[in-house]
Amino acid sequence: MPFAVRIPASPLLRQLAWFVAVGCAAAATHWSVAVACVEGAGLAPLGANAIGWLVAFGVSFWGHYRLTFRHAAAPWTRAARRFFLISAAGFAVNELSYAWLLHATALSYDLLLALILAGVAVLTFLASRLWAFRRKDG
Predict the structure, then answer these.
(1) What is the pTM of this model?
(2) What b-and-e string marks burial along 66-105, b requiring 16 or more CB atoms within 10 Å of the CB?
C-alpha cells in the first residue's frame, strides 16, 4: 500500500497542519542560518539569531500567505506589514528570552534557540489568524 498523507477534514485542523508545516520550515531555516553564522562565520549567538530571523521571515510569510491563510484572501501588502509586526514582536520576545537564558542556564545555545522558537509559535499563530491575515477588519 503506498504511503498517503491524510489531510484533516476540519478547516481549522487543516490550517493548523499548514501552520505547523510552514512554521517548521521557517524554524529550521532560522535555526540553520543562526547555527551556520555561529559555527561558520564566528558570529555571536545573539547576532546570528537576528540574521536567522530575517532570513526565516521570508519563508514564514510566503508560506503562511500562500498555504496556511490562503482562504482569507487578505491583500498581501497589508498582510505582510501586519505579519512583520507580529514576527518582530515574536522575535523581540525570542531575543530577550534567548539573551537571558544564555546567561542563566548551562544549556547549549542551539538547544535554547530550538526551545524558544517552539514557544513563540503558538502566539504567532493566534495573532496571525486573528489579525495579520484577516480579509476584513471587524
Answers:
(1) 0.75
(2) eebbeebebeeeebbebbeebbeebbeebeebbeebbeee
